[in-house]
Amino acid sequence: MTIDDSGEWWRGTEFVDLLEYLDALEPEGYPIQKVVEARCTCGDGVFHVHLQPDDELAQTECVACGALTFVADSEQHWDVADDIEDVACPCGGTTFEVGLGLAIRGDAGEEWVRWASLGHRCVSCGVLGSALNWKSDLSLSDDASTRVSPQTPPKVWDVAAALDD
Ligand SMILES: [Zn+2]
Ligand SMILES: [Zn+2]
């Protein structure tokens, strides 16, 4: 894992750097305990990210095969008549590794997402960013809580375990 935070933006060399970035970001002051890595069933892991930011909605699009996935419960509120923004890196790139960060409340067995944060690492230049974060009340037992890409079951990283090396 290599993070370069010397410039205006943090840059990472691999997906796990996105965990460190989201961990440092702490949206709304809540620590991120888990990050879901976006992976496609076609085998690829690079995505475009589409947003309806006013409504805190997001969709990923696999660059290799075009598969579309609504993030979390975005599909319920997505309005095809509304404008869609594409996430772009400061370098102009629009292809990213994507991670859905989750701040979780509750005990094992009955856990809920308190806050969710969508992070991305530009595959062209490595710049790390987060385009959107939002208050959530989805149960972790709800498939929507970890939905960010077509792969099921999703690949879920435990942030403390991944960064403790
Ligand atoms: Zn794909
Ligand atoms: Zn870039």
Provide structural commentary.
The protein has 165 residues and is mainly β. It has two helices and eleven strands. The protein has helices spanning 15-25, 159-163; strands at 3-4, 11-12, 34-37, 47-52, 57-62, 68-70, 85-86, 96-107, 110-122, 128-135, 155-158. Strands 10-9-8-3-11 form a five-stranded antiparallel sheet. A four-stranded antiparallel sheet has the order 6-5-4-7, with no helix packed on it. A hairpin with a 2-residue loop joins strand 8 and strand 9. The protein is globular. The mean pLDDT is 94. The protein binds zinc ion (2 copies).
> Which descriptor suits the 3D outline?
globular
Give the bound compounds: zinc ion
Determine the structural class based on helices, strands and strand pairing. Answer: mainly beta
Please describe the biggest sheet, giving its number of strands, its sense, and whether it closes into a barrel. 5 strands, antiparallel
Domain count, please report it.
1
**Succession of helices and strands:** EEHEEEEEEEEEH
Amino- and carboxy-terminal Cα gap = 10 Å
Helix content: under 10%
Whole-number radius of gyration?
A: 15 Å
Strand order of the largest sheet: 10-9-8-3-11
Average pLDDT for all residues: 94
Number of helices: 2
DSSP strand content: 35-45%
- What low-confidence regions span 5 or more consecutive residues with pLDDT below 50? none
Beta strand count: 11
